[in-house]
Specification:
Blueprint: H1 2-39, H2 45-58, H3 64-76, H4 78-81, H5 83-91, H6 93-140
C-alpha cells in the first residue's frame, strides 16, 4: 500500500502545484489589498503584493521553488489577460478611428521607454557584477 501511495502522491502534488501556487498569489493579493486599505498605502495592491512576495523569498520564508511553476504558468497564459482589452478595442471602432494614432504613439513610446530602462538596469547590474568579480579575484591573489 505504501508503495502505491508513494507513486501516486508525487503525481497528485505535481498536478496541484500550479493551482496551489496561483491560490497563494491570489491570497497574497487579497492580503495586500487589505494592507493598502488599512494603512492607506499610496501604492496599488498588486505592487504591494509583489513586494511582499519578494520579501518572503529574500528572507527565505517562501522558497523560490514553491512559486516558480505558478509564475511560469501565469506568464505562459498572459495573452489571455489581454483579451478583454482587445474586445474593448473591437467594441469601440470609432475611438480607434479618431484617437488611434495617439494610442499607437503612446504604446510605441512607452514600449521604447520600458526597453530603454530595462537595458540601462541590466547594463548597470552587469557592470556591477563584473567589477565585484574583479575585486574578488584581486582580493584572492
Amino acid at each position: 500500500m505504501s508503495v502505491a501511495l508513494g507513486r501516486v502522491t508525487p503525481a497528485v502534488f505535481r498536478h496541484l502545484q500550479v493551482p496551489l501556487q496561483v491560490v497563494l498569489y491570489a491570497g497574497l493579493f487579497i492580503f495586500a489589498q487589505q494592507l493598502v486599505a488599512w494603512w492607506h498605502i499610496p501604492l496599488p495592491a498588486n505592487l504591494v503584493g509583489m513586494l511582499l512576495l519578494l520579501a518572503l523569498i529574500v528572507c527565505r520564508v517562501v522558497p523560490l521553488h514553491w512559486v516558480r511553476a505558478g509564475a511560469r504558468w501565469l506568464l505562459a497564459e498572459m495573452l489571455l489577460f489581454f483579451v478583454p482589452a482587445v474586445v474593448a478595442v473591437v467594441n469601440y471602432p470609432h475611438l480607434m478611428m479618431v484617437e488611434g494614432w495617439r494610442i499607437c504613439l503612446v504604446i510605441a513610446l512607452s514600449t521604447l521607454m520600458v526597453l530603454g530602462a530595462t537595458a540601462w538596469v541590466v547594463d548597470n547590474v552587469y557592470r556591477f557584477e563584473v567589477a565585484r568579480e574583479q575585486r574578488r579575484m584581486t582580493d584572492n591573489d
